[in-house]
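Design review, sub-item: ligand-bound model
Attendees: FS, YL, KQ
YL presented the inputs for the protoporphyrin IX containing FE complex:
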Amino acid sequence: LPPGRWGLPVIGYIPLTRKSMEEQIVDLHKKHGSIVIWRMGCQLMVFISDYQQAKEAMAKSEFANRPDWDMFTFLEELPLGVGSSNGAHWHANRRFTLRQLRDLGMGKSKLVTGVQEQARKLVERLKEQANEPKPVPHAMKVAVVNVIWQMVAGKMFDMDDKRMKEFDKLLEDLNAATFALGVRDFFPGLKYLPKFVQNRVFGLDRLEEFKEKFFIYFDELIQEHKASLDPDNPGDLIDAYLLEMKEGSGSPDVVRSERDLALLTLDLFFAGSETTTNTLTFMVQYLAMHPEIQTTMQREIDEVLPKGTLATLEDRARLPYTEAVLHEVLRLSSLLPIGAQHSATKDMHFGGYLIPKGSAICTSAMLMHADPRYWEKPEALKPERWLDENGKFTTKKEGFLPFGSGKRVCLGESLARMELLIFATAMLQSLSFAPPKGSTLDVTADPAVPMFHTPRKQDICITVR
Ligand code: HEM
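KQ shared the predicted structure:
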């Protein structure tokens, strides 16, 4: 069995330290090596910090499932959608969503035009706060969420739209309410407490209330889509799913229902909004702190994209330095520092250890991204490490796993990469970023948000170029 913190049965290991959980995971790996265990309550958590081992683990079908935690399944009896479902249902939804992304998304498509439109609006909004030190505005998130709206429902909202703001608040409430279930997942005995106690302690009733609101909101969307559905020309993901519902999935194990569609959509909003928004915000903060890198990036963008022209995917090859900066930001920010948890479906021998069935498997991206075997001076922002001697971008790099890998690798990776390229180039083409006069920015993650690296909210100075 792997070394680490076995703790006591039922209670597990409760640390008496002020160190963050992340710091403790780093300590554990330093002390015991690349595979360590930490029992939290009744849940065994296995952490893997070695890049090769993480890739090997993530490629195994026995480690491809998600744990059946309520905080993942939103208290649904049967996990639906794509992020928390398993088996044939997950597989069908993953294939379906990837197909949608491909058909709606890449190359010439509506989705690229949608991202460009949002990038233009975002730049205008950022210009409004030029020369006034302020945090990166909420408009950044609106722009990113609108891209998911375009993909899912073929629509986008104005930056100040009331319905959009309400929906965003609902997503935040849902997110907070599901997070509160974590303790109950690790101490499942608590599930037998009377309902009113659980409502008070874990906010089960609040989660149900937010879910209900979401389903009502979503039902309107589905009805709108049903009324305008053209079977020969599905315009978005909802249309395509409704058509599949009519035709049937062809497998008794694959649920096709409006509830599944709603939860699949929710997964995309959750997985695709904070991640991209936070990466862009980290990028702005890093560039503000590294003016020489910012200037080199702007010079490249100016050479490749005439003023007012926005990037498309075809421009990527001509923007190697920009690509390199984005990769460095993804590496240094390690948004999901311990990845998204998987679960062992049976006892497994791995890396010289027995990994018991039911263990949650976490791949410590933050450690791989700081591993000196792969990264010289890992703490430094060094775009050049991604460029070959001819200045060409080198795609395949060991030690880099911001999107995970293997069977459950981020489903939106290509969309995220496209968004990062278009938003970043649009911003840098028209704007420059700097810390407020006489101060610096802290580019480390906000310690108030555990296990999901979030940029600190801090003032930044924007100037129009
Ligand atoms: C910079 C942006 C992003 C980063 C860093 C990121 C990272 C990740 C990571 C680390 C995972 C977990 C992989 C695993 O379980 O091993 C993941 C899963 C996922 N991501 Fe992303 N992601 C990003 C953007 C997006 C976008 C834009 C979308 C959607 C359109 C998306 C949709 C998903 C979904 C649906 C999953 C779950 C896949 C599954 O369980 O099969 N992500 N992402």
